[in-house]
Amino acid sequence: AQTVTQSQPEMSVQEAETVTLSCTYDTSESDYYLFWYKQPPSRQMILVIRQEAYKQQNATENRFSVNFQKAAKSFSLKISDSQLGDAAMYFCAYRSKVWGNKLVFGAGTILRVKS
Amino acid sequence: NAGVTQTPKFQVLKTGQSMTLQCAQDMNHNSMYWYRQDPGMGLRLIYYSASEGTTDKGEVPNGYNVSRLNKREFSLRLESAAPSQTSVYFCASSEVWGGTNEKLFFGSGTQLSVL
Lengths: 115, 115
Hints:
heterodimer; A: mainly beta; six-stranded mixed beta sheet; four-stranded antiparallel beta sheet; globular; B: mainly beta
């Protein structure tokens, strides 16, 4: 079974600075999807960014980018120019291409943004 | 657009009571899911329905039952609530089971406390 590990329960960043959230996963599959979801205090789950394992190029979405290291099974999220609105719980998630849309989530990292 | 609507948003039960969490989506999605979120454990899949008329167990199905009433609605029932079922419950939907459009749309969650 796949597992996702987020080793940082909490992180803090100064407004306008850059922060990196870590995620590692374990799988025997060669092709899969990886995601970062953001959960603000409203509890809504918001998709931030996704990566397809067969693509070597790291995904980017505006101020959000990932560092995908397939051999190391690592998938970190970098947030540049941090804003107060980035404060939230961030979840890393894995999805098998074989087992449909079932997502396996990490435990989450709380990101605090200081003004 | 309403997206995924869950009711109720908050509920307090006594041990042994039963209740049904309701979920409806208006995006004509085929697949629907129930997750629970617990501190330090991320989101875990309880049950899912790949398409209308089918349901399957996820990681943590014990103590729950589900009904896919029609394409729009997917309910989660607790027959005899236990304190271990205190959690935040999320319903989600996606367009296709196992398709390339892997984006899940989440409801805003139900905070359930079992005393």
